[in-house]
Structure formats: C-alpha cells, structure tokens
Write a structure and sequence with these properties.
The protein is mostly helical. Helix content is 57%, strand content 0%.
Length: 149
C-alpha cells in the first residue's frame, strides 16, 4: 500500500496557491467556494499522493461494504487517510524532511463530500456505497426552486 514520495521540496506551490485552497486567513475562511478549493487542493503534490491512498482504502473495503449493503460516510476514509498522513510525516521527519500542510498533506473536512463524489465518478460500481448529502450548491438550488414556486 505504500509508494515512495518525492520529498525533494521541488514543487511550484506558492502562497497564492495556499490562499486558493485555504482562504486568505489560511484556514478556509473567506475563500472560494469549496468546490474550487477541492480542485486546487487536488493539484498539490502531496494531495495527489493522499488521494491515491484514500482510493486504496476505499478499494480495500468496498467489496465488504457493498456485499453487506453497508453505506459508509466518506469521513471514515478521510480519518483512515489522516492516520496514514501521520505515518508519512513521521517517516519524513526521520529523514530530516519537514512536510507542511500547504504541500497537500492536510485534509479539509469540507472536502469529504467532494471525495465521495470524485470516487463514485471514477468508480461507478461504488454508487450507493457512500452516504451522500446534498452539496451547498445543490441546497441553494433547491431553495431557489422553492422560492420560485
């Protein structure tokens, strides 16, 4: 389940990229919408690795979840992945490398619905495996439709 990471630090990530993902205050307030933040996060070197790991966890458990008709929250995958990130950071520290969250080695809980939708889009056989809530955009659309009635 483990593949090597490039810890060379040679990436083009900038403070501006960080603001696109986390907002002007660095933690997600007053930022672009969550969908834009998700898209920006996916482009970071660390996040691509972390996303692959989340897919590995999903693949590992999916047959059991589907066979038993068990719907799960993508939050479960996020928490398994958080545990994995801690191991990656410790391994890097032993090599004298400081991994910072701006390289994508941090998970925003607001991305959990995007993760589930991303996975189902790439693995249609996982349709129905995740508990799906409406996105903020979908909720807003529903509200607009109700106002128009």
């Amino acid at each position: 389940m483990q593949d090597e990471l490039d810890f060379s630090g040679n990436n083009a990530h900038t403070l501006e990229d960080d603001r696109k993902i986390h907002g002007d205050d660095g933690i997600g307030h007053e930022a672009n919408d969550t969908e834009s933040q998700w898209e920006a996060w996916k482009e970071l070197p660390g996040s691509r690795h972390i996303l692959r790991q989340a897919y590995r966890f999903a693949h590992h458990y999916s047959k059991d979840w589907i066979r038993h008709g068990q719907q799960v929250s993508a939050k479960l995958l996020w928490e398994l992945t958080r545990h994995y990130i801690k191991k990656v950071k410790k391994r890097a520290e032993r090599k004298g490398i400081d991994i910072r969250h701006w390289q994508g080695f941090a998970l925003n809980n607001a991305f959990t619905p995007s993760l589930a939708r991303h996975m189902v889009a790439h693995h249609p056989e996982w349709e129905g495996m995740f508990l799906m809530k409406k996105t903020t955009k979908e909720k807003a659309q529903d509200s607009l439709e109700k106002l128009e009635e």
